[in-house]
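Thought: the user wants the 3D structure for the chain below. I'll pass the sequence to the structure tool as-is, report back what it returns, then summarize two notable features.
Action: structure_tool
Action Input:
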Amino acid sequence: MSDTPQYTPVPPQPPAPSQPGAQSGLSDNAAGALAYVTIIPAIIFLIVEPYNKNSYIRFHSWQSIFLGIAFVAIHIVLGIIPLIGWLVLMLLDLGFLVLWIVVILKALKGERFRLPVIGKYAAQQAGA
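Observation:
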């Protein structure tokens, strides 16, 4: 009898199935939230594969673009009105900040949080 341990070969195991989003490097939730950072990632996600194939990411990208357009339009309209428009604009900016944080957090949680009016158009564009 020998004191050396016996070597038992382990059969090779098949590779683990790939998870969705593992190939792209970004999860769907992270990409959806990143679309709200500025309009630039939203546009990139609508152009670059595999992001443009995912309706969740497309929805958040379109909603981000529409939210940015609404933000700029409201600033143009209210920025023209002296004093009262500027005061209202400060309150609306605070509201936009809160709304922006909410949509980012909802996207990180994996929810398709539809903003009033804007969300309907974003869903149509995303095909969701």
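Final Answer: Structure generated. Residues 28-126 form one domain. Helices lie at 28-34, 39-47, 55-80, 84-109, 118-126.
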